[in-house]
Amino acid sequence: MKTIHSLLSALLIPLAASSLAGVMPDMTQVNCPGSYSGHLQDVCTDGTYLYWAHTVALIKTDLRGNEILKVSVPNHHAGIVELNGTLYVAVCPLSDMNAPQVDHPVEVWLYNAETLQPLEQKVLPQIDRAGSIALTPDGFLVGCLRDAPRNVLTKRQIRIHRYDRQFNHLESRIIDCPFDISMGTEVIKYNNGHFWLAIYNGHVHELDENLNSVASYSSQGQTGMIFDGKWFWYGVTNSKNGLYTSYIKRVESPFLKTESVRGSSAQRSVIGTIDARDCARLQTTEQPLDTYPPIGSRFTVR
User: Fold this and answer.
1) CATH code where residue 15 lies
2) How far apart are CA 143 and CA 204, in angstroms?
3) Which of 67, 114, 180, 259 is the most buried (most CB within 10 A)?
4) What pLDDT does residue 99 have?
5) Residue 270 · residue 64 · CB < 8 Å
6) Cβ-count burial of 98 within 10 angstroms (0-12 exposed, 13-18 middle, 19+ buried)?
7) How far apart, in whole angstroms, are the C-alpha atoms of residue 147 and residue 188?
8) Which secondary structure element, helix H or strand E, spans residue 238, and what is its range?
9) Range of 105's domain?
10) In terms of Cα–Cα distance, which of 223, 218, 220 is closest to 239?
11) Are 158 and 184 a contacting pair, CB within 8 Å?
């Protein structure tokens, strides 16, 4: 028998790295106020406020989406996390994103979470394009967009870099995935001792604390994920007339379609879905089962 892990069981366990359990309001959707020339890339919370990275703007709201502050920032501000009153944002200059041959160091920009004013720009020795960032128990994990340096990654590989709290480089790793990858790692979050990497082409890839692959899920999350210990939220961004709006959506039964990727093999099994709209977004021809496993369960598929 091949063991398939439910993403639901992992998402509904309280965060190991923070005390956010159940902080989000009893709403199914929280809208980000305003419209912007750049799309939503990530969102995070400190338990009191939401911080939205809209590539060209940082927006601070309360947990219900009421605007507190917003500032314009250079494109391309991407992954965002908060720690002890400081926002850490993965940044890749847009000119470098449009010029694949250009080598550029990993950058992480720091902002005051209270005022959204810039504090520091970390320009790191690793040559790559920072697109996402997550807190780890002792530092940060930065995920990168494809493809710099060129001709290094295959179409099924992503690259990540691990740092301590002072951004001393600890290791870099190339991760093999069981699916083709377009733009790279858009969002990374740390929850329940594992890392959850939202990949541009509609997958979330799970790594354990040692950065070993655990499973891969067809799911949303490429424009933001929040694990609040009770619910899972993912970001949605829409465009109209060249401007982008966004919101986060609460999911009560998230992304049960999984691909086990333990070792080098990949096993597919559809074990459920969210609702008709989300099922359509997955664009899969496979059919979900009629019944769902109980929350928090582990189960097997023959």
Assistant:
1) 2.40.128.630
2) 13
3) 259
4) 57
5) no
6) exposed
7) 18
8) strand 232-240
9) 2-301
10) 223
11) yes
The tally of domains found in the chain comes to 1
Give whole-number Cα distances, 141 to 24, 29, 108, in Å. 24, 28, 11
One-letter amino acid of 188: I
- DSSP codes joined into one string, 150-213: TTSS-TTEEEEEEEETT--EEEEEEEE-SS--SSBEEEEEEETTEEEEEETTTEEEEE-TTS-E
Amino acid at 260: S
In whole angstroms, what is the distance from residue 43 CA to residue 299 CA?
A: 32
Structure tokens at 26: 């009893």
Q: Which amino acid is at 144?
A: C
Select the more confidently predicted residue: 66 or 266. Answer: 66
How many Cα atoms within 13 Å fall on the side-chain side of residue 205? 28
Percent of the chain clearing pLDDT 90 (strictly above) = 53
Six-digit token pair at 296? Answer: 């928090």
Place of tokens 């049960």: 256
Max CA pair span of the chain: 54
- What is the residue whose two structure tokens read 């400190």? 46
Q: Who wins on pLDDT, 2 or 53?
A: 53
Residue 104 confidence (pLDDT): 80
Query: Using omega within 30 degrees of 0 as the cis cutoff, is the peptide bond preceding 149 cis?
Result: yes
- Using the CB atoms, write b or e for 35-61: b if 16+ within 10 Å: bbebbbbbbbbbeebbbbbbbbbbbbb
* Phi, psi angle pair for 243, to nearest 5°: -120, 150
Q: Give dist(CA 113, CA 123) in Å, integer.
A: 20
